[in-house]
Amino acid sequence: MTTQTTKARPLSKTVRDAVRRNTSPGRHLAPAFAALAHAFLFLLVCGGCAAGVALLWRAALDDPRFLLDGETLGLGGSVRRCPESVEELRAISLRFSGRSLLDPRLASDLENAYSRSVWVRNVSRMRRNFPNRMDVELQLRLPVAQVRNNRRYWMIDLDGVLLPVRGGADPFGGLPEVAGATANTIGGRPEPGGVWNDEGVTGALGVMRAFWGSPLSEVLPVARVVVNTGVFGGGSAKEIRRRFEVVTETGVVVRWGTYNDLPNGGDELTSAEKMWNLQELLSREEALRPGVCLDVRTRVPGYSLLPVAAD
Description:
Number of domains: 2
Strand order of the largest sheet: 5-4-6-7-8-9-10-11
């Protein structure tokens, strides 16, 4: 038996080079290194652009053309203001001198600063007015009455909030007064910014609002609301409540009784019913004479005109 052996032919140089290229370890890594190089260059360009934008933004924020100086901050809203409120609001404005109108936090910082003031009820609107003015519209707390407490006078707004004005021994001019018939009739005052929750104060404000919302306020402008303490009912049902008398600038006294603004309030008339009674009384010529007392408390028809000194 004869065995035939086939001799392998040597590979050509071209084939050997091709095999070597295909089996080289760096062949598959080269594209990855190229991608990393491109990514690095991209990030380098982006970083340079971001740095450039940051420098431009910093320069814009420092541009004096866009800087507030306190005087370029306009306040709108309530026309009538106390000198104390004007002083405090101006102090808040001056704290923002040097801030750029381009500052994205300027509006929120201003709103927070004004909202912390007792004088500000609400920040209604803010608008940038280029190049260097910020217009702010505020709803302010305005003094509508003064409370006499512990021989001093204190300003309150329509909600009964005590305003941050130091109470004095002399009354504030131009404001109606809430006064207790005795020293202990009206309870202690709150801190500035707090609501004076004493029933005498809240009830007196309710009576004043009834007058202010009526055309009769021009005929009988309120000068003072006197708060008295009355006992209603008997036995275990006995109840101590506040009673009110309105003293007008013309010298006419209106006996208001207790304050009740609820419909179907039992035997107590509502403010609207009492104002209707008052309007009926004023149709009589003698009702507007100084020193006359008008009683609007009764539910039954007919109203009495009593001397001020009478009980």
